[in-house]
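*** Query protein ***
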Amino acid sequence: MLWINIVFALAQLIVGVIFAAGSVYFAMNLLDRFTKGIQEIRELRRGNLAVAIYVAAFIFSISLVIESGIAEIVSAFNPESTPTVIVLVILFNVIKLFISVVLAVVAIYVALQVVDRITPEINEFEEIANGNIAVALFTAAVLLSVSFIIRATVANLSDFLDPVSLASMLYGNGG
């Protein structure tokens, strides 16, 4: 039984690492779409601290929202579950994770648009590209605040879509 637990723990670790790397990759690709006129990697190489703050806040915001979804996917690897239930739980959790990512992206995009509208005298992306740390910190605070709120909303999805119960119900009825 110890070896089975070790295998399942390693499976959880591997899946967690894959999703963590994927979330950073996904966040960086989204960042390119959201920021106009900033080449983040080039600015990071130049040592632009304002861009670094903005990039870090963006990656953290996406990761914060999807963290609970990834934890639920990883927890599906349970030695006491049947393979069918494990697959169904993973499938339901991936769907839930997708909904979480969509909510996070929409919320962050809307937040950036609202900030842009309430500060018409400031072009946030231009200021960040020029190294304005104050604007980068302000924008980072907005991103993080929105992600905490969306995280709470996403956590409530579990109350309505409990993958373990759904998988057990489907497997028990149809499997």
